[in-house]
Amino acid sequence: MATYLEQVRASNGKLFQDVPVTEEGVDTLQFLEGAEVVVKLFDLLGNKAFAVVQNDLNGNIKKVRDRHAAKPAESSTLEKLVRNEKAEGKTTATQGLLWLLRGLQFTYTALKRSLENPSEELSVSFTKAYEATLKQFHSFVVKPLFTLAMKACPYRVDFFQKLGQPQDVVEQELGAWIAALEKQVVQVQTFLVSNKYDKGL
């Protein structure tokens, strides 16, 4: 039986290790396709409480996708998209990208922690990841919603069973996917911060 990530690739879903990264930056549309795989991954957690996380990711994906649709030639990579939007004095897609990266950072931090700590339940891994990433940016209104979602995680063993068999292959594939995701997120976050594109957003 194919693992979850193998099924994603077989159905033409985009895994982060397949997203092109060139000297010009990270391919915009393929990165967004990879982010959509993250949104669907939350379905495996099997609780409606995670809708708040999925809605946040989807909303920010849409902001970036809308900019690409409006200015495809100037938005072929995430870096080009941000530069060109800044030149027009706009920030909508850049703000969406900034928050999308934060959400993806939270996700890979949680999954990476779970891989490295197999005896730790997902609720702990996700809570610790939230505290280390998104929590500092959230208002007092949003924090309780995300905190509730973290506590709604299934047992780790049940989640990893949904990712497929054999488990050693699942963990190897998940590790490679997380590593590619982290590398691209860090690259774009570094670009945003070093050029001060994140200021005031």
Order of helices and strands: HEEHHHHHHHH
- The average pLDDT is 95
Largest sheet: number of strands, sense, barrel closure: 2 strands, antiparallel
- The low-confidence runs, each spanning 5 or more residues with pLDDT under 50, are none
Binned strand content: under 5%
Residue share in helix: 55-70%
Shape: globular
Using only C-alpha atoms, the radius of gyration works out to: 17 Å
Question: Secondary-structure map with pairings?
Answer:
Layout: H1 4-10, E1 21-22, E2 25-26, H2 28-41, H3 51-70, H4 78-87, H5 92-116, H6 122-132, H7 143-151, H8 156-162, H9 167-194
Antiparallel strand pairs: 1-2
Helix pairs in contact: 2-3, 3-5, 4-5, 5-6, 5-9, 6-7
Describe the structure.
- By secondary structure, the protein is mostly helical.
- The protein contains nine helices and two strands, in the order H-E-E-H-H-H-H-H-H-H-H.
- The protein has helices at residues 4-10, 28-41, 51-70, 78-87, 92-116, 122-132, 143-151, 156-162, 167-194, and strands at residues 21-22, 25-26.
- The protein has a two-stranded antiparallel sheet with strand order 1-2.
- Strand 1 (21-22) and strand 2 (25-26) form a beta hairpin.
- Helix 3 (51-70) crosses helix 5 (92-116), helix 4 packs antiparallel against helix 5 (92-116) and helix 5 (92-116) runs antiparallel to helix 9.
- The longest helix has 28 residues, at 167-194.
- The termini are far apart.
- 33% of the residues are buried.
- The model has no long low-confidence stretch (mean pLDDT 95).
